[in-house]
Amino acid sequence: MFCVNTDVIVPTVKIDEEISDASDKLKNSKELDFTDVPFFCEYSLFSKNGNLEKSSLETKTAKSFWNINILNHKDSERPYRYKTIDRGNEILILRYRIASQFKNEMLRSFFPVADIPVLIIAFIEMIALLIFVSHLFGKYTGGKIRKLLIVTQKIEEQDLDFTVNNSGIFEINEALKALEHMKNELKKSLMAQWKADKIQQEQISALAHDLKTPLTILRGNTELLYDTELVDKQKECADYIMSSYEKMYNYVQILIDVTKSKIPLSFSLEQTKIAEILKEVKVNVKGLCAVKNITLKWNEDYNTDYILADKEQLLRAVLNVASNAVDYTPDNGNILFDIYEDIQYFNIAVSDTGKGFSPEALKRAKEQFYMGDNSRTSGIHYGMGLYITNTIIKQHKGQLLLDNSVETHGAKVTVQIPL
Questions:
Q1: What is the SS3 assignment for 114-178?
Q2: Superfamily of 270-418 according to CATH
Q3: What are the residue ranges spanned by the domains of the chain?
Q4: Nearest 5°: phi and psi at 27?
Q5: Ranges for the Histidine kinase domain (predicted)?
Q6: Measured distance CA(132)–CA(229) in Å, rounded
Q7: pTM, rounded to two decimals
Q8: Which residues, at least 6 apart from 337, have a Cβ–Cβ distance to it below 8 Å?
Q9: Which helix (H) or strand (E) holds 82?
Q10: Quick one: fold of 9-113?
């Protein structure tokens, strides 16, 4: 045990040995030399009739040696043992503990029994060792478990082009093998789905483009008919043909937009001057409003000069919103543009004086091909405008908010781009 085999502590097994050696010397010496008393002993020297002559302790405690050892014939009283040394005309009584003791007097005064601090130190050492080992083990296993977290995160993000490395721990390796199998199966599934979608998009796109040619011929021939003298019935039929042509052409254009919308848009985000975007938006919106004699109200309240955006795509998104607003606003109505900034976003809010969104449309109007809102359905909309706009705004890490305007009582669409 700690310090036992050094000069710091006297172990229990040596106590009796030192007492025996000292007793012989103290008994047989002519002149009593108290330095021969072992350091771990307290002593009291009595005359033959019990008078106290000298002691290392206070008088009351010293006299108790005589009562315990001589009168009561006890050689121990917890936690002490007593040793009587008969020197003929005087009696020396030693008191000591049967326990390991420090040799240093100051340490002995604080810790009469050395076993207690030794056990405490040993316990502290064990705790420190346990903490140290636990720290090392935690650091070691933490690094291995981190591999699991990295793998699961990559799978969650569908980043599947990576290799799973061995961790060195059997249980973790088994989990990694399962994740690797899942990764490979997911990769196969996604690749198959991607190929199928791509083929479908190419087929739809090809079909849409192929339809444009006969439609163009149909329009051209119908326009030639208008150049001839037509009776009322013939003109009515020609009008039906042109009306149907326009609808079919719009359907084809929508099919093309659909295939394009499923392909990730080419984005180039850069610091873009807000004033330039708004200037171009305003010019285009004025042109849209002029057709239906709509009044454009334009309010600006912002201080930021630049935002991170793809100018062309953002223009496309805002003009989609504006075009919807014009389509749903009656002739001679109003459209309100509110441009402002808050702590987090640069906002472009467009409100019209149409019928507004129904509760269902507020939830679903951003879905692809959603046309379920009777209050806002027309023959020229196919549920793509807000879907495409929302896709673009998401690419900008922004939001597209739908609401009904308190001011205009029509629909309100807000484009939010992070500052």
A1: CHHHHHHHHHHHHHHHHHHHHHHHHHHHHHHHHHHHHHHHHHHCCCCCCCCCCCCCHHHHHHHHH
A2: Histidine kinase-like ATPase, C-terminal domain (3.30.565.10)
A3: 9-113, 184-262, 270-418
A4: -75, -40
A5: 206-419
A6: 102
A7: 0.46
A8: 282, 285, 296, 297, 298, 299, 348, 349, 350
A9: strand 80-86
A10: Profilin-like (3.40.1840)
